[in-house]
Amino acid sequence: MYARLIRWAFARFYREFAWTYDTVAAAVSGGRWGAWGQAALPHIRGRVLELGCGTGNLQRALTAQRDLWAAGLDVSPQMLAITRRKLTVAGQSGNLARAAAQALPFSATSFDSVVATFPTEYIIDMATLAELRRVLRPGGRVVVALAAAFSSDGTYQQLIDLLYRATLQHSPREQPLGPPVSLLGRRLAELGFTVVERWESVANNQVHLVIAEYTAWGGDAGAAKLAPHPHRWGGLEGPSAPPDLPNGKAEG
């Protein structure tokens, strides 16, 4: 019953109270939430899909990279509205879609990288992971910033620890004890990914990164080979498909 209540509260947080997200995230990370998430940036490449793009902080960073083409996806219309507004204020063009990670509105082999930062439990759903494998191109990469750990332990960290535990979340007060291992990493390996998990130093803290590469052809089970065109960009809001996909287009 308590876990169900927490899930309900988070659903409200991501929707009706999405306008508080950036403030809350800064408060529970010592102002490092954005830096923690950007730990994923050096490990992504090419055409990038961000799952759970939230309020658009990573989308802004991705869109600013000249060597990347980025799309953002979220189930929350309120989160997407905030992302869209931030991109507009920054003078950036965004490519956004409202959809669930378990049913991505993109055709097979559409992306070189899929990234997620501090995702909820949807990320370990096998339906999500099967979809990631399907939309990745050969050699494609999944990069997930899964958790973070404070480097110091004082009154602030203790209070934040209580909050995280009360909401059934992994606490950043828990210190790394050796190389990280996660259920996400194990499940990706079961699906044929080569997985590396490690702690990365960010803003004097540690971020748990899961980096998984898929070297086989993506796509539906049993498909021996998949043609890269035409691409389906269902529900995608934005100026264009990736520049090297002339046959792709956004569908209204």
Helix content: 25-40%
The CA-CA distance between the termini, in Å, is 40 Å
Shape, per Cα inertia axes: globular
Q: Please compute the radius of gyration using only Cα atoms.
A: 18 Å
Task: State the domain count.
Answer: 1
Helical segment count: 8
Characterization of this structure:
The radius of gyration is 18 Å and the shape is globular. The protein is an alpha/beta fold. A hairpin with a 2-residue loop joins strand 6 (194-202) and strand 7. It has eight helices and nine strands. It has one domain: Vaccinia Virus protein VP39 (Rossmann fold, 3-Layer(aba) Sandwich). Helix content is 30%, strand content 24%. The strands form two sheets. It has a seven-stranded mixed β-sheet, with helices on both faces. The N and C termini lie far apart (40 Å). It has helices at 2-14, 21-27, 33-37, 57-63, 77-89, 126-135, 155-166, 183-190; strands at residues 46-51, 68-74, 96-98, 111-117, 136-149, 194-202, 205-214, 233-234, 250-251.
Describe the structure in brief:
The protein is an alpha/beta fold. The chain has helices at 2-14, 21-27, 33-37, 57-63, 77-89, 126-135, 155-166, 183-190; strands at 46-51, 68-74, 96-98, 111-117, 136-149, 194-202, 205-214, 233-234, 250-251.
Blueprint of the fold:
Layout: H1 2-14, H2 21-27, H3 33-37, E1 46-51, H4 57-63, E2 68-74, H5 77-89, E3 96-98, E4 111-117, H6 126-135, E5 136-149, H7 155-166, H8 183-190, E6 194-202, E7 205-214, E8 233-234, E9 250-251
